[in-house]
Amino acid sequence: MFLTISTTGDEKTPATDLSFLLHKHPDNAQAFSTSYGTAHVVYPRADAECCTVAMLLEVDTTALVRRGKGKGRGGAPDAALAQYVNDRPYAASSLLAVALSRVFSSAIRGVCNARPERVQQPLPLRVEIPALPARGGPDLVCRLFEPLGWTVAAERVALDREFPEWGDSRYVGLVLDSDRLTVAEALRHLYVLLPVLDDAKHYWVSADEVDKLLRAGEGWLPTHPEQKLITSRYLSRRWSLTRQAMERLELVRLAEADDSEVEDLDNAVQDETGTDETGNGESTTGETATGKTTAGSGETATGEGAAEDRPVPLAVQRRDAVVAALKESGAARVLDLGCGQGQLVQALLKDPRFTEIVGVDVSVRALTIASRRLKLDRMGERQASRVRLFQGSLAYTDNRLKGYDAAVLSEVVEHVDLPRLPALEYAVFGSARPRTVLVTTPNVEYNVRWETLPAGHARHGDHRFEWTREEFRAWAGRVAELHGYTVEFIPVGPDDPEVGPPTQMAVFTLTAKDSTKEEKAA
Predict the structure, then answer these.
(1) How many alpha carbons fall within 13 Å on the CB side of residue 500?
(2) Most distant CA pair in the chain: distance in Å?
(3) What's the predicted TM-score (pTM) here?
(4) What is the pLDDT confidence band of residue 21, given thresholds at 50, 70 and 90?
(5) Can you state the angle between helices 94-103 and 183-198, rounded to 10 degrees?
(6) Cα–Cα distance between 176 and 416 in angstroms, integer?
(7) Confidence of residue 274 (pLDDT cuts 50, 70, 90)
(8) Per residue in 416-425, pLDDT tens?
């Protein structure tokens, strides 16, 4: 199993800087033990004009069999059928990828104290692998490497040159050229894509492989056009791991698109046990877990007539108001946008009139908690067919959101930066266009009734704004007129004669003319 990496240079920037970046001296022939053999590193040429490092991996086929048999437990599928006669010692695979990680670990991390200025500089690189298994052929090799800045030459290897009528093998001779990549980037590409092309691994794929993939794929995998194929193959087509990796990659992509940190997007749930029952998993200041907050008029925030010893939390009142409005609209297929921990989804599942309920949230953590809350893994087949959870950002249009009767944005809009609010408006009202849209948001005027809320503070630390009743009505009216909806407003919670209700809800209904257009388009 053989691989070479070459670069060129001059007296000012000598090619031998490659040896510093790889942490391997060109005058020494070195050997490194791996789990399945020995990796040898030598330099066929090392001068200012050209430097080539070669790695030869000697595979111990006996150790390969002894360490595990069968796919995923130490032996590739080929080894499971023919334990001692297979391509593992000769063709690049996950064995070579692991050896690259073992031998060039510092280089993959981009660490070089001797030439720190060269670490982030692209080099003219050439990578040659004479025998690479490629399930998908040269076309797939190009689809994987070309988007990363490589010029690809992949030539099929004949099964036997003496018998051309036998056709080609699944192997290719690969040459990669690029002058746009650093050494660290090149090594990370090879580490991930060699086992992807082979579509097999010589070891058991466990949960920590997701972290390995995301580390090696940082900076390129979230935007790669073949992301799904790469992820699935790298994780040996294990569905649960692939889904976990795809969710985390989507979060990275959204964070990069929004020029924000992943932690800022995945902050919907701070503490699974400490949050209240709001629709989106937020904890509230002023709305205590029991709702026992005294209003200025002597009412509790949970409404008139509630028993003093068992008040109804505002979050429950809000959810009940949303469910009642959905029933009134006649909706059967409902989107819960910003579903958080899934309380509203859970409530809707109890009513058979809602035949399809979809929860959407940008936070992987929130969706994980929602899945556990709903017990999706133990839910009966008929019930499970009514509910779906998936990750998505309301800052972008999404075809998966089209065709539903109603959409709910419960305590969501106030978490969006005002400059980005028009993007959410278009994604929901302009692109998805459900017949009914319910929007709830805090009424900032009511905040003076929360004794525990300091003056001038929002109810939640992540609120970008909180609207007065007039501001909310102005926003809702503009959105309705722009996108062909009518809108009415419903108070949620005790409607204080001076400051209004603690929560305000807008019910948007697509006008008959626009609804007819949508049906014809569908």
Answers:
(1) 20
(2) 96
(3) 0.56
(4) very high
(5) 160
(6) 44
(7) very low
(8) 889 889 999 9
Query: Three-state SS for 36?
Result: coil
**What CA–CA distance (Å, rounded) separates 233 from 197?**
8
CA-CA distance, 413 to 402, in Å (whole number)? 20
In angstroms, the CA 295 to CA 213 distance is: 53
Helix (H, G, I), strand (E, B) or coil at 19: helix
Q: Pull the structure tokens for residue 218.
A: 């940082």
Q: How far is 89 from 64, CA to CA, in rounded Å?
A: 10
Which residues touch 286 (CB under 8 Å, ≥6 apart)?
293, 301, 447, 450, 452, 453, 459
What is d(CA 313, CA 399) in angstroms, rounded to the nearest whole number? 35
Q: What pLDDT digit, counting tens, does each position of 457-511 carry?
A: 888 878 899 999 999 999 999 999 999 999 999 999 999 999 999 999 999 999 9
Per the CB < 8 A criterion, the answer to whether 466 and 444 are in contact is yes
| Best CA proximity match to 447, nearest among 281, 286, 284 | 286
CA distance 239 to 233: 10
CA 78 vs. chain centroid, Å, equals: 33
Rounded CA-CA distance 372/389 in Å is 11
For 486-495, the CB contacts below 8 A with 24+ separation are 486/511, 490/321, 490/325, 492/314, 492/317, 492/318, 492/321, 492/440, 493/301, 493/302, 493/303, 493/314, 493/317, 493/318, 493/446, 494/295, 494/299, 494/300, 494/301, 494/302, 494/303, 494/304
Q: What is the mean pLDDT of residues 157-174?
A: 84
Tell which wins on pLDDT, 308 or 346: 346
374-401 pLDDT, tens per residue? 988 888 888 889 999 988 888 888 899 9
Strand duo 50-59 + 30-34: pairing: unpaired
What's the one-letter identity of residue 177?
D
- Alpha-carbon distance of 432 to 429, in angstroms, equals 6
